[in-house]
Specification:
With about 300 residues, the protein is mainly α. The protein is about 60% helix and about 5% strand. It has 2 domains: about 180 residues, no CATH class; about 60 residues, no CATH class. The protein has a two-stranded antiparallel sheet. A two-stranded antiparallel ribbon has the order 3-4. Keywords: Membrane, Transmembrane, Transmembrane helix.
């Protein structure tokens, strides 16, 4: 009885539905053109210029962008937005609750980022002041609390959805580990050295003459001159004397940006529940704050 009351309360709180009835809450992907239009207008096309104007007025920290960079960020926003809309099942999860949670979170994050002790980045974690550590730990606690609740929501749906839901974390983890591997390779050349070593070994083996050719007695012609000597005594090491050169890559650095963290989280706030929709508004706002202020900075950069 209590579950039915909770479900009725949630439906009443969410208001009229704008998504097609055929979309399931366990859908891995979904798309509705009209809902996508609302989604992009609410979370990209409207907040992007508004944030830039307000940031300029109050002198918030933002990257200076040319018209070309604005165009690039908007088009990338449409692309990234389409991906998270489709695979985050926002055709089903999008509601006015998400929009209401989005805008206070967007400007709230900006105000927190303007505090003197938060003007730092993740790569400089060793030099963080105590204030930044407090903000970080509080944010981490909130994220973990939301994560636990979302796993609970996933577990209430028919199997094997919760398995897919949890295992989906392997995708961003793989991308992060691959970036770490690229950074390590750029400074240590492990693959390059291994490849060159194998190539040198194969070349050395090819340069060795067969044993029977090296030890067979030299034949002599009628004048007592040796024949066939040239074929066995020529320099068989001519191809193996050259030492392969290891060409090192230009060093690169790893910089995990907050827009990447919250963009990944926005794939998991996919449930048709008010708490999940509030969480969706928060993570989408933190993601968009990074885009509005700085743009789509890369995870791996030239050092």
């Amino acid at each position: 009885m209590s579950n039915e009351v909770n479900a009725t309360f949630c439906e009443a709180l969410q208001g009229p539905r704008i998504y097609p009835d055929w979309i399931s809450e366990t859908a891995v992907y979904s798309f509705d053109a009209l809902t996508y239009l609302y989604f992009i207008l609410a979370f990209l096309l409207f907040p992007y210029p508004v944030y830039r104007v307000i940031a300029h007025k109050f002198n918030w920290e933002v990257n200076t962008k040319t018209l070309a960079r604005h165009w690039s960020d908007i088009t990338l926003g449409l692309t990234y937005g389409c991906i998270v809309f489709v695979f985050g099942n926002y055709t089903k999860a999008f509601s006015w609750i998400t929009v209401v949670a989005f805008y206070p979170s967007l400007f709230g994050y900006a105000l927190i980022a303007e505090l003197p002790f938060t003007k730092t980045s993740l790569p400089r974690i060793k030099t963080w002041p105590i204030g930044m550590w407090i903000v970080f730990l509080l944010a981490l606690a909130v994220i973990l609390a939301f994560a636990a609740f979302h796993i609970y929501l996933a577990a209430t749906l028919p199997l094997p959805f919760v398995i897919y839901y949890v295992c989906a974390l392997a995708i961003p983890l793989f991308l992060l580990l691959s970036a770490v591997a690229i950074v390590y390779e750029s400074t240590h050349n492990v693959i390059q050295k291994t490849f060159v070593g194998i190539k040198a070994s194969l070349t050395s083996c090819k340069g060795k003459a067969p044993l029977d050719e090296e030890t067979q007695p030299a034949r002599q012609d009628s004048e007592g001159e040796q024949i066939g000597e040239s074929s066995t005594t020529k320099d068989v090491h001519s191809t193996s004397d050259a030492i392969p050169v290891v060409e090192s890559f230009s060093p690169v650095a790893l910089h995990l940006h907050h827009w990447q963290i919250f963009y990944v989280l926005s794939f998991f706030t996919r449930f048709n529940h008010p708490v999940s929709q509030v969480a969706a508004g928060i993570v989408l706002a933190c993601y968009m704050e990074g885009i509005c202020a700085y743009g789509y900075d890369s995870l791996v950069n030239d050092a």
